[in-house]
Design brief:
Chain lengths: 195, 195
């Protein structure tokens, strides 16, 4: 049984390779398929950090628009970035880069911003959600243990809040926890309910 | 490999039947066994709501003390309560009671308090962590869908934040997310590190 009756006419596509994001969309209780397209994830250099995630979600959605979406299709795209000291942390290049990022976030607050775009043939909606996350002071042993055992190279900011480092290091979240994992499920549910 | 070298001399016991709490302790990365004892979970009527969870965690720990804990054993106990409008919500009696609780929390903030006690032959430590959780307005259809499909009768406050109702209904957490699930992992890790 699916709660959102208004979505029954759509074949829903989630355009994301992230298994975390796939689990989060499953958590809302809707049926969907996965279909991703290669998108250049660059953004204008002078863009405000708060505009980047929604901008990239629109870019990912446009890859579908160009191929003429059939009537009964809905595409959901998302992009998550980590912002610390007004700078964006992307995915780390290697273990040293991951170490640098975790040292940077140790003992302070950072922001996690997810931009989401919902696209059908008729219309599109884009929104973003920001959560604040605070790490307690992480020592070198903890940072090395995490990087060696969890290899967070596929994660913006070099960490997964649902992994060991989140259990032992995050002392505070302000906002949506699922947004920190990669998808603001509650806001997305509300947007889909009224789409 | 286990990070907390100082715990290697202990056989750790988690005194909790909750599979969520067991998963959360696993998430910290320590080895433990499960052993529970029956404890009367009543508390003094006029006790401040903030004292109840730590009081009950001490009561659960005392069930072990009486049986003379061996030198190399460490017991961890915990109790989680939900407080809304200065009243404690326990586990719901039935579906109607669960409906009452979810209606009460709909569209507002409540507190989730977990009390934890760590006990060895030499010493014991007790602490508690409070998180605030905000539910968006839940409609009757959503409340009924959740209760029928998830049967949250084993959960204080009649909900699991990691279940459907948490995905679609919780718009805000302030504090530790894992504490809302039943164990404040980060604070517990810090307490164990310095035990």
């Amino acid at each position: 049984m699916m709660m959102l009756e208004n979505l029954k006419k759509f074949n829903i596509i989630l355009a994301s390779k992230s298994p975390r994001r796939q689990d989060l969309l499953k958590g809302i209780g809707i049926d969907f398929q996965i279909l991703t397209k290669d998108v250049d994830e660059s953004y204008p250099e002078r863009m405000s950090v708060f505009e980047v995630a929604p901008y990239l979600s629109v870019k990912k959605a446009k890859a579908f628009e160009e191929n003429e979406l059939p009537d009964n299709y809905m595409v959901i795209t998302a992009d998550t970035i980590v912002v610390v000291d007004d700078k964006i942390l992307g995915k780390p290049k290697d273990a040293d880069d991951a170490r640098r990022m975790l040292r940077l976030m140790s003992g302070k607050k950072h922001s996690v911003i997810t931009g989401v775009t919902i696209l059908t043939k008729e219309k599109s909606k884009t929104f973003s959600v920001t959560s604040k996350v605070s790490f307690d002071v992480l020592d070198e042993e903890e940072i090395n243990y995490y990087i060696n055992n969890y290899k967070p190279m596929d994660k913006a900011g070099a960490y997964g809040v649902q992994e060991w480092i989140g259990y032992i290091g995050v002392n505070y979240v302000e906002g949506s926890y699922f947004n920190v994992m990669g998808l603001p499920t509650q806001k997305l549910y509300q947007m889909l309910k009224c789409f």
